[in-house]
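notes to self, project folder thing:

trying the whole complex as one job this time. last attempt i did each chain seperately and stitching them together was a nightmare. two parts in total, labels are on each line so i dont mix them up again. if this works i'll redo the older ones the same way
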Amino acid sequence: MIGEALEKADLVVLGAGPGGYAAAFRAADLGRQVVLVDSEPRLGGVCLLRGCIPSKAMIAAAELVNRLRHAGNMGIVVGDLRLDFAQLARWRNQIVQDLARGVEQLCRQRGIRRLTGQGVLRSSHELFVSGSDGNVVLQFQHLIVATGSRPAMPPPFRHHDAILTSDEALALEHLPQDLLVVGGGYIGIELGTCFATLGSRVTIVEVLDRLLPGVEPELVRVVHKRLSERGVRIHLQSRVTSLTCDQGRVTVHVQPHQGATWSETYDCVLVAVGRQPRTNDIGLERAGVAVDDKGFILVDEQCRTSQKHIYAAGDCTGPPFLAHRAKHMGLVAAEVACGRVQAFEPRTIPIVVFSDPEIACCGLSEEEAASQGRRVHVGRFRFGGSGRARTLDETEGLVVVVADADTGAVLGVRMVGPQVSELIAEATLAVEMGATLEDVTSTIHAHPTLAECLHEAAEAARGMALHVYRIKR
Amino acid sequence: MIHEFRLPDLGEGLHEAVLVAWKVQEGDVVQQDQPLAEVETDKALSELPSPCAGRVLKLHWQPGDVIPVGAVVVTLEHTIPEGVRTAAGDKEQEPAAVAVGTEPVQEGSAHPERLQAEAPVLAAPATRRLAREHGVDLRLVRGTGPGGRITQEDVLSYVAARAAAQTHPAAESVAEVPFDMPPGVQRPVLPDFSRWGPIERQPATPIRRRIAQRMMVSFHTTAPVTHMDEADVSLLEDCRRRLRLAGSAAPKLSILPFVVRAAVSALQQFPLFNASFDDDRQEIIFKKYWHIGIAVDSPQGLLVPVVRDADRKTILELAQEIARLADLARSGKIRAEDMRGGTFTITNIGALGGTAFTPIINWPEVAILGCGRIREHLALHQGSIAARLVLPLILTFDHRVLDGAQAARFLNAIKERLENPLALFIEVQAPSESAQRPDSEPGRR
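result (full assembly):
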């Protein structure tokens, strides 16, 4: 150590993921002197560097492959489809590189000071940053913690060249031949589908009795069927008991709920069994910041921690682990730190799974509304009834609208089908605005589009669907 | 599902209520709208109906506690109405649970930012931000949008109404503000009574506090003088008894409606007694309507409901109206509106006894008439000694507006009418005449 520089700082943001950089940008725009600290030289965090963005690049490629392979109905027959995985990896990495540079430029334009290094709290007002440029102690007025989360790697799993988390899976430079995905949650499903479509033999092992726990069975069924059609083998109610690594391959032993233990050998094992907060090594206890028993930072609706001048945003405050949640919390934390009256109080945080086909949800499901004692009207519309879905040759899936029977307010929307990751935005706006079914049905939806399916489902919830005939209730 | 039932906005700018009694116990199963508790505000007693069907998990207060508006009163376990499917399975259903694995990260940690426990208020994000900026609890705002959605306009009009209530209290609610001591006078400090023996402290109920404040306002604002006399009501009592025997529609025709009738006639003859004094403008305000306040001894304390347009009512109608208002007051169902706008007050302590007392003027009125107990005494009547019935009459008047001689004449006018009841019956105003009078307070009834 070469000693340490002492620096006074107005507002420090620890972590440069979507929560952290959003907070830093907003605080700078509101006139604060901001220091942004991250252990990585590139900005963007897991989302940009090892999560949402690279995975969507890979999934987009897989979708294209898929469409080409199944374009026979349209008279398009591709004889020899060849995948240059190395080129795909270059394209993917370039997207990440460009976006990270973009964030960096925006950061520079705002006059935000950047420090690269591991940030550790020394006290409630001091952050020690040890980096390549030397050691700095930041004496801050306000701190926003946005250190995010990391993939969990519980025993019997351990880090090994052939045992990957999503971090490594999204940095692969070659296509694995045999891939085991442990965990049927959204990361496992997205990456499993993607690699299977690109040509890997994929097996999914999930402890629970269905894929995507937490998502309605009605939606999961569509995805499960498609995975099976793609040749993905799915083992539910099964648990990996041990792994043995031999010459770059991994033999995995699996104990199903019923029946005998089986074992198989794979090139790679992707462990996608959850995420842990990155809060254990940043000195929160020295600053008096309270965490729960799992290590998530406790925050109030203003994103304040137990120390009123320290805020937290994003995955480090707990699930759901979503970049858009982190971003909004970061903005709220920054505005509150700047003295504005703000709160993180969304009625809903939309959820999107880039499975095949995609799943998207916002607001309450029928079950959740019922468990709140609400009387609901539910409307369904299948993509098979949509002219646009037909012309895309994507007819699997449906839209479900749940509305309050008394007020007509849209409580929630569930979708599985083509491009629902985009369609959910309108539904989210409706839920957040407290829109009623009539508001939705009175809004003219362009024809022919997939968006009309939400309109139709809302009409169905009012008992007035045009393109479904049903006897009046 | 757990429902936290909060004390709703009680209207009239009220911020708290006193819990009088629970109507349910913890563990009880209740229906929607079943009364949960009886609460008292400084206006009236009322019942809190259950917002839903369910089971009572917890009662959060003790009788006698002061509950602020918005505080949780009762925790209910909501039962799901019939016909609605319940959540299937016994697994914990997490909203938006797409965290991938099972270990080590499980969803559902008790987390302060889980906000959707209570059914959310229907309002767009920008409206919610506006409400937050103005410190408005949206649960207290009535939404005018479709499906009861709260608009930005709803929030702003709530804010305006709240500000108006704070800066321009209605004249009647002046006494809601704790009364200040007159300039230069300090409120004396109470001694420590427990030095001399055991004591018990009880919080004053809102009605008691309001009575105390109103009395202090009157005491410090008016210049009261009390004038007393007696009326020979033998003839009137004879009439009354005969009317009752004749099976009149009024089941219990007391002397009070006759006194009201006599007082209204005297007030019309002496308009200064039906007036108020405007200190700021040094003006006397004559009221061209005759709304008579009747002091009622209710279980919660003194209440003064007002008989509207007493000049236009027959004695029978007065008797019915007094009975109706007294019932409402005694059962705690009287509305604040029923106790406003009086021009003169009558307090009848007669039933309880007493020869004389000194009533306090019901400010901003300028006079109050008290009635003692009718008693039989020996008197010289038309040259011979006879047993006569005598009603003590007490008039307290505001000497700022009225003088002793006027008071004597006013009380004489009442006395004469009570002693010669025929006068009461010939003076009733013709309905046609009164109908022509424009209603001075449109919409108040």
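what i see at first glance: The first strand of chain B starts at residue 2 and ends at 6.
need to look closer tmrw
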